[in-house]
Design a protein that fits this description.
The complex is a heterodimer of chains A (226) and B (191).
Chain A lengths: L23 H9 L12 H6 L4 H24 L9 H23 L1 H7 L10 H11 L4 H31 L1 E2 L2 E2 L14 H30 L1
Antiparallel strand pairs in A: 1-2
Helix pairs in contact in A: 1-7, 3-4, 3-6, 3-7, 4-5, 4-6, 6-7, 7-8
Chain B lengths: L1 H13 L10 H6 L4 H29 L7 H23 L1 H7 L10 H13 L3 H30 L10 H16 L8
Helix pairs in contact in B: 1-7, 3-4, 3-6, 3-7, 4-5, 4-6
Classes of the chains: A mainly alpha (226), B mainly alpha (191).
């Protein structure tokens, strides 16, 4: 409908609390870096840690979540004028649950191994706070094209965060990557990394590094100013 | 009987929902800055878990036997309505608690522990009584994890922490240590 770099809010009725107008490209990028769901907003931590013990699982989870995000964002945004405000959360959850069921059945039919490895965490995408959060904060208030771009961006950001966490965990915890041994036979795997504490530890260290980077940047800026 | 006791202990300690299965992390990191709020949220969660266990068993046995693909949708609708009821009860009888829990009360709906319980109960084929014991263990385990975390974080408030660890980093590392401690219970099953 509009070129990617044109602001698109001119014809749309303003909804109270609606996100400020932005380009589609900005809607996409926001989810990857500045508002990354896992690393900045701390949403969707449960799947981010539960299935990140191998890269294949992490990526499969990311892709399935992205699919649900895009589908539900589109449908919620398209129906936003027909959903009464009082029952919006229940309607959102129903729409999300429908897409999750589709994703669950597709995964079970196409990739039975991965579906078995992820287990109940595929139906648990319904309660991933990222999806309901985006529906409430974004998709329910803007047009479908922006909602879909936001969904793609958030999904990509989630997949990216999951890939990083699961790469670290699989590499250190079993010495492999996507199932292929990469660290050689002399490497002693840190089994703890593929177990639950490793998930908390990996993400914790990522936050510590980000915190260190942030304070360092602030200090350097302060020193430059004086 | 020993089977029931084992289900209870296993969910409470060995497979603790929060620290070993990563369910319900949002509230685990979100509401654990005060012990008081933490254990009350744990109690509210336990209540919802128990009701969910009964409803999930009922749905599985009488409604969903021929339509398993509708399971996710049916469960989430039941959970959402249960949480709504709990919210109304708490608002009526304890407005203070209602204010303290704030956004996390409606968010029990999207607490993965609740839906997770219903799903695990289904895949493991628990009976009604087993399901109730499972829910009780899960709820108390959740409360235990929340309270432990909150007590540590209350101490942390007065500690001198390096600037880079002020946000979530340190909390996650602590969670990792707690989780490691709970792994110590893992040997209990074989003994």
């Amino acid at each position: 409908m509009t070129a990617p770099n044109q602001p698109i809010a001119t014809g749309e009725a303003l909804v109270p609390g609606a996100p400020p107008p932005a380009t589609l490209w900005a809607d996409f990028l926001r989810g990857i870096a500045e508002e990354n769901p896992v690393l900045v907003q701390m949403l969707g931590l449960c799947p981010a840690m539960a299935v990140s013990n191998s890269l294949a699982n992490g990526v499969a989870m990311g892709v399935a979540t992205t699919f649900v995000l895009i589908g539900s964002s589109f449908l919620i945004s398209a129906l936003r004028k027909h959903i009464p405000n009082e029952v919006r959360l229940a309607s959102y959850i129903l729409i999300i649950a429908t897409f999750v069921t589709v994703a669950d059945l597709l995964l079970a039919a196409g990739f039975p191994d991965i579906s078995k490895a992820l287990g109940p965490f595929v139906p648990l995408i319904v309660v991933n706070c990222i999806i309901l959060g985006r529906a409430e904060a974004f998709a329910g208030k803007v047009g479908p094209s922006r909602a879909v771009m936001d969904g793609i961006g958030m999904g990509a950001g989630f997949t990216l965060a999951l890939s990083v966490i699961s790469t670290v965990r699989e590499l250190l915890g079993s010495g492999t990557l996507l199932g292929y041994p990469v660290l050689g036979p002399r490497f002693e795997p840190w089994v703890i990394m593929v177990m639950p504490p490793g998930g908390f530890l990996t993400l914790g260290i990522m936050f510590l590094v980000m915190g260190w980077h942030g304070t360092r940047k602030a200090r350097l800026a302060k020193e430059a100013a004086t | 009987m020993s089977n029931l006791a084992w289900i209870f202990l296993s969910t409470l300690l060995v497979n603790n929902f929060t620290l070993a299965m990563f369910l319900g992390l949002c509230s685990f990191f979100g509401v654990t800055s005060k012990i008081d709020t933490a254990w009350r949220l744990g109690a509210a969660n336990t209540f919802v878990l128990l009701i969910t266990a009964v409803s999930a068993w009922f749905l599985n046995t009488y409604v969903l036997a021929k339509t398993p693909f509708l399971r996710t949708i049916a469960f989430i609708v039941v959970i959402a309505s249960t949480v709504q009821i709990v919210e109304m009860i708490i608002k009526k009888y304890s407005p203070t608690l209602f204010r303290q829990l704030g956004i996390y009360l409606p968010l029990i709906t999207t607490n993965c522990a609740i839906l997770g319980l219903a799903l695990f109960q289904t895949t493991r084929g628990y009976t009604l009584v087993e399901g109730l014991v499972f829910a009780l263990g899960a709820g108390l385990g959740l409360t235990l994890a929340l309270t432990l975390m909150a007590s540590i974080r209350e101490r942390l408030d007065v500690a001198d922490v390096p600037a880079m660890a002020r946000r979530m980093g340190l909390v996650l590392v602590i969670a990792s240590c707690l989780s490691m401690a709970f792994m110590g219970f893992a040997g209990m099953g074989s003994g």
